[in-house]
Amino acid sequence: MLRAAQIVVILLTTSFSLQVLSEEHKVAIASAHPLATAAGFEILAKGGNVFDAAVAVSAALAVVEPFSSGLGGGAYWLLHREKDAFEVLIDGREKAPMAAHKNMYLDKEGKVIDKLSLDGPLSAAIPGMPAGLVHLSKQYGKLPLSESLLPAIRYAQTGFAVGERYLKLLKFREAVIHHYPETAAIFLDKGKLPERFSLLRQPDLAKTLSNLANSGREGFYSGSTADKLVESVNKAGGIWTKNDLESYQIIERKPVTGVYKGLKITSTGSSSSGGVVLIEALNILAGYDLSKMDELTRKHLITEAMRRAYHDRSLYLGDEDFINIPLKRLLSEDYAAGLRSSIRLDKALPSELMSGQIELQTEGLNTTHFSIIDDEGNRVASTLSINFPFGSGFVAEGTGVILNNEMDDFDSYPGATNGYGLIGGIANCIEPGKRMLSSMTPTFLESDTDIAVLGTPGGSRISSMVLLAALDFEKGNGPESWVKVPRYHHQFMPDVIEYEEGALSEPELTSLKSMGHQSKKVRYPYGDMQAVLLNKKTKSLLAASDQRGEGRAVVGK
Ligand code: GLY
Question: Which domains are present in the chain?
Fold first, then answer.
């Protein structure tokens, strides 16, 4: 960590001039960090397409938001190529190591051992992000990976000034970071929390990124980086093998789709629950004319739709390579009509009458998202994660790579809740080589006139945030409005509406209570939505970055 006047100079050099933009096409990029947005435009200016820009933004976020995502984590990239209307979901979600087993976080009495799936290398699954970057670049980009990774390598090498969010999340994970000297040496300043605007340099991460840039997947999944990863994970109590790394593969999947009042939804299927929860909730709501209802009834119905969609999440969703998911049913409008028929306009359905037990939820501020679209309609929605802030808190020696704690997204036993209070069943139990269930919901929405690209971090609340934004889009509002929508959330268990300040008024809270709803105001606003919009006719673009975060949305000409 440096604290110096040179920071200003470095900031100027790292904040690539946003004037130098692609001559060919207008592009909108919204990401959670100004330097990541700048990285995208830098690569467009070098002749890259939106997929090259997505590689650059993903890699830059891995450097400038080490608390949210990174080479030690996983990601989903939802792509649309306009010339042949090709759409695909790149599933770069992490996988359980082959030595993982369903009881690995339980003690002899079968009770979950506190923190074992959250802190340290035993909580880390095999990363998918590096393989995803290689695939995205090779398969869909125009530029070599060595070019698209340059901004990220530069940010890691020369450093950048850390902001409020970094400091807040570092403080939140201070205890685990202190526990691992390699991590503390990178992110703390001589063992203490750094000052705001301190310079964070990550030379080891720059080297690891360079290996990836020069050697492709071999630069991470085999050779010296892989040796260091496996050796230091095992030295600290983890269970990775070289074979786990060498055999990791991303999967190209068909996105899930649905239609809500003429709006086409394209989103993430397994190994994420995101798109299924979103589409199922919208299918339930499609039977109402929300525009003609008072706010209270609207919010009650949206809550009841969330309750039912999240209930199905806990029963049916997991890694489709390991379980049979009744996808056709879950996405069916007829099935949603059946669920709708159990909704009363005047009364909440207690979740305990559906199934399960009530557990409390912890709050998380993790994961990250970016959205890109060009004026032809080529687009990328990507949500990336290492799970909790600073993931497992463990950096593999000499790599600069902070490992995820995504193993916590599995269910330790049926009926268990994870760090977000999500209740789960056997569909999402731990198995060797399996992907853990995610909530990430990178999404496209398309109306007759417009195409939207959006998503957000926020753990289990991700899908409900995207749902509220989609409903706002359907009302005719634009990205500036979607990212601002005051948020509320219900996930079946715990049976409570969590809401941001201003999302539910006092009279609404009183009425919701009399209908049988429990409500709880969250301590802090949540989410960090990044959204862009293309008007199909005028080709005009809009972009918006959530004011709750520190991101930047730019439309470049
Ligand atoms: N780890 C957060 C998610 O996958 O949804």
Answer: 4-252+364-428 (no CATH), 255-353+444-527 (1.10.246.130)
